[in-house]
Amino acid sequence: MADPRFFLSKGPIPVGSLLAAASISADGVDSRLQISGLAALTDAQPGDLAFLEGAKGSGLIDTRATACLVRAKDAARLPSSTLAIPSNHPRLDFAKIAPLLVTRRDFSPDAPRIDPSAIIADGVIIGPGAVIGAGAEIGEGTRIGANAVIGPGCCIGRACTIGSGVVTMCAFIGDRVTIGANSVIGEAGFGVALDAGPPVDVPQIGRAIIQDGVSLGAMVCVDRGAFGDTIVGENSKLDNQVQIAHNCVLGRGVVMAAQSGLSGSVTLGDGAVLGGQVGIADHTKVGAGAVVMGKSGTFSDVPAREVWGGYPARPRALWLRETASLVRLARKNRVRPSREGEQNDD
Question: What predicted TM-score, i.e. pTM, was given to this entire model?
């Protein structure tokens, strides 16, 4: 369920009205059922709408969702208490319905620069041009840089330094956190539904959580979760221009060098280290204390305390042996440049 600090619910709305407004067939559907929220299928509660697409396995799915958009071949996987709404493109239809049910809290056009409902503790320093939204909370001794934007409902802890031009939306930020200039925390993650037509953005209704002692460099992006939370663990250190996609979870003391990036739902264990320009594929796990060397591309899980490198990344010793073998092979078979008129048969 979307956090009411950051999102407004437009429900409950009869499911028939939602389907009609999104131009989705309601044939055979009990249109009177009331829908009040959105959720991931396994986290959904009564009143929630979810979707099922591309799930592995064939067994019954444990969910309490009131209704679920689902392909006909997968409908039998839903419990009898969940209304199966037939859909050829469940994710796309969910994206069409979501804005009808939930909207993100935003700044009122006529609100003052610092909303009077914001709770600002003693000793907070607010730079020129900074904007603080309704219901935001800022802890004692925190510094907000010039032209920073603290979104409605956002919470920032004590003794933090928020750099100039930083934007926080749908975010909880702990104590002693440093965020470099022009970083963006809690904006929508990259969720896209594809069909024969143009791509459609899937609304992201989760949160971003930055725990105590974290430092983020300049121009870092931490996307909020699609449904749940994106989490950066205590005392993690992220260099400039790092990308953290939706629903990633970073453990304590993670280190990421500049221009490294995580796709959606990546997990980094405590103390994991990523070199510069490392890319991690979605739903991949990097174990505690593991190291991924610079410019590597990781598509499979990295065991704890191992060192991997290369593209695609593999254990360092294997990568180095393969690289050395390729060098020897290239030297053995290299073609020497020939003089004009001569033929080189090496």
Answer: 0.90
